[in-house]
Write a structure and sequence with these properties.
Shape: globular
Number of strands: 0
CATH architecture of the largest domain: Orthogonal Bundle
Order of helices and strands: HHHHHHHH
C-alpha cells in the first residue's frame, strides 16, 4: 500500500467504518468515558509507535513520545472539532512530538546514529528461516540508520507516506503544508535515502 493507491471500494468502506468508530469513541471520551481512550489507544498504538520510532530512532524514546501524545489527546480532546479524522489529528500530534523530542534530545547530548534494530511486528505470520530474518533485520537497520540522516521535515513526510501509507492530502493535513510541498519533501527524502543506502549497503 503506497499513498492509498490501489484501494477498492471495500477498502474505502472499511476506512470509513474505522473513522466512524473513532468518532464515536471521541464523543464518548469527551463525556468522560476513559474506556474510550483505552480503545483509541489499542486501535492506533502500533502505527503511532511506528511513526515515532522512525522519527526518534529509539524504542524507549518512541514509547515516551506515544505516552506524551496520548496525554495530549486526553487534555485536548474537548477542543477537537472533527475537522480532520482522529487518525490525522493523532498522527499530527505524534509527528510534532517526535520532532520536538529530537530537538530536545540534541540539546542534551550528542545523538548516536546507530540503529537499535528493526521494529518487530506484534503479529508475525508465516514461517521464515533464521537467515531470512537476519537479512531483514540487517536491511531494516540500514534503512533506520539512513533515515536518521535525512532532514527532519523530509523524513517525516517519507515515513508517513512510505511506511504508514498515508495519501499526500492526509500528510499535508498532518504536517500543515501544501500537497505540493509534501510531494517535494518525499522526492527529496527518497533521493537522499538512496544515496545513503548505496553507501551503507553497497
Amino acid at each position: 500500500m503506497v499513498g492509498g493507491r490501489g484501494h477498492g471500494d471495500a477498502a474505502d468502506e472499511a476506512a470509513e467504518r474505522e473513522a466512524r468508530r473513532d468518532a464515536e469513541l471521541v464523543e464518548r471520551l469527551k463525556k468522560g468515558d476513559t474506556k474510550a481512550l483505552d480503545e483509541l489507544y489499542q486501535r492506533h498504538r502500533e502505527p503511532a509507535y511506528g511513526i515515532a520510532y522512525r522519527l526518534v530512532g529509539s524504542r524507549e524514546d518512541a514509547l515516551d513520545v506515544i505516552q506524551e501524545s496520548f496525554i495530549h489527546v486526553l487534555r485536548g480532546i474537548q477542543t477537537f472539532r472533527g475537522q480532520s479524522s482522529f487518525r490525522t489529528w493523532l498522527y499530527r500530534i505524534v509527528t510534532h512530538a517526535s520532532l520536538d523530542y529530537r530537538r530536545w534530545r540534541s540539546l542534551r547530548a550528542t545523538e548516536s546514529l546507530d540503529s537499535e534494530g528493526a521494529i518487530e511486528p506484534i503479529d508475525a505470520s508465516g514461517q521464515r528461516s533464521p537467515a531470512d530474518t537476519a537479512a531483514d533485520r540487517d536491511l531494516a537497520a540500514a534503512i533506520d540508520k539512513a533515515l536518521a540522516n535525512v532532514s527532519e521535515k523530509n523524513r517525516a513526510a517519507l515515513v508517513l507516506f512510505a511506511i504508514e501509507g498515508m495519501s499526500y492530502k492526509e500528510i499535508a493535513d498532518v504536517l500543515g503544508i501544501s500537497v505540493g510541498t509534501v510531494m517535494s519533501r518525499i522526492f527529496n527524502a527518497r533521493q537522499r535515502l538512496r544515496e545513503l543506502l548505496a553507501s551503507e549497503i553497497g
